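Exercise 7 asks you to align residues with tokens for two separate proteins.
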Amino acid sequence: MKKIFMAVVIAGMLAVFSGNVFAGSVNAPGIRERIEEQQRRIDDGIASGELTRAEAARVQLKLDKIKDREARLSADGKLTPRERKRLHRMLDANNKKIFHKKHNPRKMD
């Protein structure tokens, strides 16, 4: 019984870790998820009218630059702690911009 239990636990751990490796999260933990979340917020803001087209274009341009930077930095297969910290700072700044753009009094006509 213990052997079966241990085999199930080990198989589960392998599934979790192999999923992380193939998802790319070993190289950039949290960064790709944050990029996807910001993209969703921009898209939702356009759909709901919280973001004007001009506001969305500005934060989308910044997000596209962050995506490009992440792709260049992880092209060698790894991110240094310094590179990861820089990307998180860029995402923090863009996150604040998205929030402020979505909560200002300007609305679509």
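Second protein for Exercise 7:
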Amino acid sequence: MITKKQILIYIKYDGDSDGFARCATKSERNTLTDDIWLLLDDIVFDLHLINSNLASKENADRISSKLGKTLNDDSLVQILSDYSNKR
């Protein structure tokens, strides 16, 4: 499961993996792995599709299922949804 701490680190670096690689602290690197980073990239993109009404019903259902498996709290989905709207 993705944690709020991981999401906040991702947002801190504005989804910029190069900036994260150059500037992240050791603690941040231990908290947010490359695999989680890539998963967050996918989730932000998927939420952008939904928020922009570009996802088909089937795709939106698939995304919702993925969110349920990776985020255990609706507030985390909201944080990422708000972030995806600003990008």
